[in-house]
Each structure stands twice: as structure tokens, then as C-alpha cells.
Amino acid sequence: MHIGVVTLFPDMVATIADYGVVGRARRNALVTLDIENPRDYTSDVHRTVDDRPYGGGPGMVMKYAPLAGAVAAARERSPAGSPVVYLSPQGRVFDQAAARRYARLPGLVLLAGRYEGVDERFIESQVDEELSIGDFVLSGGEVAAMAVIDAVVRLLPGVLGDDESAAQDSFMEGLLDCPHYTRPEEIEGRNVPDVLLSGDHAQIARWRLKQALGRTYERRPDLVEKLELSDEQQALLDEYLKEQRQ
Ligand code: 9WO
User: Fold this and answer.
1) Is 164 annotated as catalytic?
2) Residue of minimum CA distance from atom 14 in ligand 1
3) pLDDT single digits (tens) 209-224
4) Is 89 a catalytic residue?
5) Nearest C-alpha to atom 21 of ligand 1 is from which residue?
6) Cα distance between residue 121 and residue 7, in whole Å
7) Distance CA 65, CA 63 (A)
8) CB atoms within 10 A of CB 156
9) Is the pTM higher than 0.85?
10) What is the residue-averaged pLDDT of the chain?
11) Does the active-site annotation cover 92?
12) Which of the residues 66, 114, 119, 154 is marked catalytic?
């Protein structure tokens, strides 16, 4: 998969390509990353990328022409049909389903805005999707773009090892994660649940799913609403809730 990023802060975004899962994926040629800076597509000596908003008001707006140049270059380096996605608070909220959808594409161009945003005519004519990572305003779209890159790249075939991808298996899809423990067994009087020390992998898997179901029900009932629990999952959830009441 190829991911293009358009940003005024290329060094900021480039860091994601050097660390962790994304860094490993890039070194294994499972993903390529191209970063374009609108400042490189300006025609004036001051390399101007922003200007005052028509109608007055605070802040500045990113100019159309430098954005058009940078996005055109990013598109050129990305497979045909790569959507241009503008990271903004006005976008559709990103979720795992969207990450899976993007991971199935050959390419993606992410536009990270700054200032108060980009000229609306650029969104109308050049942007395919607006995407938000949550209902808050950042200083720019770069952090959001890096979050999307991380969420998408980890879903690409071969990026996560067998164990790691097993943790992503569809059985747990759509649920919050279960609790995790590591050595030592006892910390300030708090012990590791016995089942995790039992070596009984079936019981351990059952416990982990039960915890994931229970935590999702307690913390994000909206996610449970979206799920069609199997009889086994419903029984596990009921068992969890009964244990919580004891
Ligand atoms: C800046 C600003 C300054 C004064 C008054 C109002 C203002 N609104 C903004 C603003 O929304 N700036 C954005 C900065 C413009 C687009 C890029 N920036 C951004 C993206 N902030 N937060 C995001 C973002 C992206 C994806 N998901 C969540 C937040």
C-alpha cells in the first residue's frame, strides 16, 4: 500500500515511518510513504501558503494553489483511484471499519491542514472524504493523519506477526480489549487472575472474551448495541454481569 501525506510539517509526519509497526512495515516494503509540502508548490519568494480569510475574523486560511500542487504530486505518486482524505473536525468520525476499508485500497492521500483550515473550494473540487478522529480540535491535521496511518498499516497483510494478528481476530472484533498482566504475580496485594496462571488455554480464551464483553458493555454500551452477540457471547456477558453483582 502507498500512503501520501500533504503537510506543512513533513518532518513531524516522517517520524511515524521510523518507529514501531509502521517503521517495520516500511522497512519490509509492505507500505511506502510519500510526504509533500505545499510550501514546495508556491510561486512567490516568501513561499506563501496562507492568506487572510474573506469576511474577516481570526486566523488564516490555506491557499488553494499550493495545496493543489502538493496534492497533485501526491496523487501522481499514489496508485490511480487513491482517495484524497482531508483530516478535519468536520469529517466523518474514523473507526475500525474505516481503517479496514482504507487497508483494502492500493493507496491513500491524506491532507493535514493547518491554521483555520483550507479554502472551501479546494475541499469541493479536490477532496474525496473529510475524516475526523474525534470530536475535538487539534492544532493541525498531522496527529490525526498519523493516527490513521498507524491504524491502517497495522491491518495490512504481513505487518503484524501471527500472534499479534491473532489478537485482532474477528471473534474479538468490535469489542474493547481484555485486561493484560505480566510479572510479577503480586503487586501491592493485587494478584494476577488464577485462570491466567492455569495454562488452560481454552479457559484463558473464554475468560478474555468474557472480560472483553463485560468491559465493552460497561464502558461502551453503544458498541454492544451494534453487535449481534452469539448465544455463547450473550451467556458469557450474563456470567460477567452476575459476577460483578456478587
Ligand atoms: C482553528 C481556529 C482558530 C480560531 C477559530 C476557530 C478555529 N478553528 C480552527 C480549526 O478548526 N483549525 C483546524 C486545524 C483546521 C483543519 C486542520 N486542523 C485540525 C484538524 N484541527 N483538528 C483537526 C482534526 C482532524 C481530525 N480529527 C480531529 C481533529
Assistant:
1) no
2) 140
3) 999 999 999 999 999 9
4) yes
5) 138
6) 18
7) 6
8) 17
9) yes
10) 95
11) no
12) 154
